[in-house]
Amino acid sequence: MFTGIIAAVGKIIAIKNNKKDMTITVQAGGLDMSDVKLGDSIANNGVCLTVTRLSGDTFNADVSYETIKLSGFSDIKPGFMVNLEKAMQMNDRFGGHIVSGHVDGVGEVISVTALGNAVEYWIKAPNELAKYIAKKGSITVDGVSLTTNEVDGASFKLTIIPHTISQTIMQQYAVGTQVNLEVDVIARYLERLILGERAAESAKKQQSTMELLAKSGFMG
Fold it and tell me: Exposed, middle or buried, 27 (CB in 10 Å: 0-12/13-18/19+)?
């Protein structure tokens, strides 16, 4: 479990491609590695990965086919910068929101506008994630816990302060940048709760139920 508060920016320095998955080597930058052990979890751009090897300020992690398919890791190369956050401890300060480290899809930056000292970003999410994104709700972008200021269809606006930009890879964002998105876990559970007893039915039957709920005005 994570909070979406980035501790450091790291860099992928090596990639070993296997048959369908890969192993990456990450230089941890300013991340405190003194208490990291083999098997610990570290979020890389919002993707929860398990440490499989440690060497000084670098660590290895395996990236599964499913993770590659659902995240921006399909396009990574050596030199790729990543937001890093170690898994939270029970006595940590909870500064962001509940982040699982399970990416739901890849969004695209469609607008970048300077707004005084801040920067305004519009990001287009996959259409299937639009129902989980609400104005003034929480969303995780490349592992960063953020608040959506406006929503327009599947697109949402973020207004980011200078500190957040300087401490994350958001300073590199430009129109066309691909970003990992994780929607608020509460929204995902709410969808299942709405199904009630029908949650045990097949996906095809559930789809019919969701369409009925939408037609009845229960879903946007």
Answer: middle
pLDDT attached to residue 206: 58
pLDDT at 119: 97
Task: For 173-215, write each residue's pLDDT tens digit.
Answer: 999 999 999 999 888 888 888 888 887 887 666 566 666 666 6
Q: Which residue range forms the structural domain that includes residue 78?
A: 8-86
Tokens of 5: 């508060």
Residue 34 located in a structural domain: yes
- Asked if the structure places residue 149 within a domain, the reply is no
How far apart CA 147 and CA 150 sit, in angstroms, is: 9
Torsion over CA: 152, 155, 157, 158 (sign): positive
Other CB atoms within a 10 A radius of the CB of residue 29 amount to 14
List the alpha helices (DSSP H) in 25-130: 65-70
Q: Report which DSSP code applies to 202.
A: -
For residue 12, list its beta bridge partners.
26
